[in-house]
Amino acid sequence: MTRPHLLYTAWSFPPSRAGGVYRALATVNAFVDAGWDVTVLTVPRSIFVDSTGADFRLEEQVRPGVVVVRDEPNVPAYQNDIGRWPWSRARHTELFKLADLRRDFLHFPEPNYGRWRPSLERAAERIHREHRVDLAIGTANPHVDFIPGWHLHRRFGVPYVMDYRDAWQLDVFTGRKLITALPIVDRWEARLMADAAEIWFVNEPIRQWHEAKHPESASRMKVVANGFEEYGDSLAVPVRPGRDAGLVFGYIGTITDKVPFRELVDGWAIARERGGDMATARLELRGYLGHFGTVSERLQADLDRARGLGITYAGPVSKADIARAYEGFDALVLALGTGRYVTSGKVYEYAATGLPIAAIHDPGNAATDVLKGTPVHVPIDAVTPAAIATALEETARMAASQTVEERRAAQNAAARYSRTAQLAPRIDALRP
Length: 432
Fold this sequence. Notes:
Elements: E1 5-10, H1 21-33, E2 37-42, H2 45-52, E3 67-70, H3 87-91, H4 93-105, H5 117-130, E4 135-140, H6 147-156, E5 160-164, H7 183-194, E6 198-201, H8 204-213, E7 221-223, E8 248-252, H9 261-274, E9 282-286, H10 297-307, E10 311-313, H11 322-327, E11 331-335, H12 346-353, E12 357-360, H13 367-371, E13 377-379, H14 385-401, H15 404-414, H16 419-430
Parallel strand pairs: 1-2, 1-4, 2-3, 4-5, 5-6, 6-7, 8-9, 8-11, 9-10, 11-12, 12-13
């Protein structure tokens, strides 16, 4: 029997270390495990190695047999060799950037990325002619990733899926339309959605927003939550020996100015001052500082102050090693920016560990829907130092007394959030 062939387009694919890479990697691997041939259309490795950051261990997690086609997008934002810049760009950087936007909008209404459209279309046709494509999936952002599937559908009738990791027109933190949500963007989004076999969103609030925006495509809109994946070692970590000598809280994730880190540090200081289990507790931060490795003055000042309170930054950790990192913790801090549409991929991973979770985010966030009602969820009612301190104290009490049976029960309850459980029904539905 001939194996069906998936063309998967993603800007972020290993060795990228961007947050969206995990959804892309897991989706590709899930289709391979389900008996598909998979070709990935992505960008050169040099973009991640030289510009946005790389996690080379992730490349080891790509299933054998996946064909990776790397296409040059020629995006100036990722051309860091100043010696190769044209004189006009080196001399008048801002004016060059403004004038250069025209190159994008001539092809597709997305700053920086729109110019990639013609090359993506050519690459998709080449791949289809060499190995007939049965299904195309594009994961965004950038949203030009949707173009190969749409193009193959127009030319050859190939069904395609639009997978939104983020929203094209919606600011998920503020709930307002983005400044880039121009009328032409709305028209393009409607055009792309019109013929899509399915349209995936990471949570229900984002799906509902798009349903209201594009009701004619609502019947094909699905929620495919991020879920968690395991790379060899299980996330169902055991209760840590030695917790009696002092609890270890953990935070794993990118720390940006959207994260209420200052409030967390203030709340941590209050809780430590009150004593109890928090008096000897420490918090270990793992992950990247900023999306592109840069730290704002405010965040640096907060990190400096945190060191004197038992909060330490231990650097990034590869997803391939992440289970071992969780083994060193007794409780977790889920610190997220505010926004009804914000879930974050790490909420599922946190839940899978069975560790008590201090949910340091606005209770209106979509992440609350994932953890609400679970035995390890300790929410706050407001993002204030006082409320955070109370939640940390409750989490510490839970962590100090959690039994092996209680940990296992929490892990079992989270099993439904595995990436496989999220993807399997969609893969079955899309099989030709």
